[in-house]
Amino acid sequence: MEKKIAKDLLAIGAVFIRPDEPFTWASGIRSPIYCDNRLTLSDVGVRADVEEGLAGIVRENYPDAEILMGTSTAGIAHAAITAHLLGLPMGYVRGGAKDHGRQNRIEGKLLPGQKAVVVEDLISTGGSVTEVVEALREAGAEVVGIASIFTYGMKKGIEKLKSFNVKNVSLTNFDAVVKAAVEEGYIKPEDEARLLSFRDDPSDEGWIGGRN
Questions:
Q1: How far is C-alpha 30 from the geometric centre of its chain's CA atoms?
Q2: Quick one: which of 7, 9, 117 has its CA closest to 54?
Q3: Is 207 in contact with 198 (CB distance < 8 Å)?
Q4: What tens digit of pLDDT does each residue of 87-140 get?
Q5: Do 82 and 68 form a contact (C-beta atoms < 8 A)?
Q6: Are 10 and 181 in contact (CB under 8 A)?
Q7: Residues 174, 132, 137, CA angle at the centre, nearest 5°?
Q8: Pair type for strands 142-151 and 115-123
Q9: Which one, of 117, 69, 113, lies nearest residue 91 by Cα?
């Protein structure tokens, strides 16, 4: 499944790979890869693969899940479609509380003690998704885990999830995408080591321009 989803993401242009012209994230990290999983919603075939895959993750890893909670905004649609496939309720967590109305941060009906699975599109450093986990726990939910489309597998992200004592299962990951990109001819075989060195240590920019 991780290889299939990796090839899906590459085929629809949801993953951009530019080892010589890196992207700059909001955090300031320069990355050879940019992943826009919102594009999976626009391709019927890939969308089906992703949502069935996420449903499979929940069935296999979180069989006691009682509700799916999407991250705002990219995880909302995936949570809704996957919840429909599983016959489960869903909601989502805002990036911050509304400044009007009931000032909700959590949208949808969430009951105290309810077993929730967070649905996320991608995980890099783990900061955003653990904020969602924290908000749900503060609201009284039992977060049984995270189901995501893509993870970079960065040490910082892995440690962040561990510190929150929460499990993540992704459909695909950085390593699988890089390998698929080589197989499909999107990048040169010699670029693989450069890209993996970014994953190992994003602060070391020796991989840029083939300097590694």
A1: 18
A2: 117
A3: yes
A4: 999 999 987 554 443 457 899 999 999 999 999 999 999 999 999 999 999 999
A5: yes
A6: yes
A7: 130
A8: parallel
A9: 69
pTM: 0.92
φ, ψ of residue 126 in degrees (nearest 5): 85, 0
What is residue 80's predicted lDDT score, i.e. its pLDDT?
98
pLDDT at position 98, please? 44
Q: What is the pLDDT of residues 24-52, one digit of tens each?
A: 988 888 999 999 999 999 999 999 999 99
Q: Which of 185, 190, 142 is nearest to 167 (CA)?
A: 142
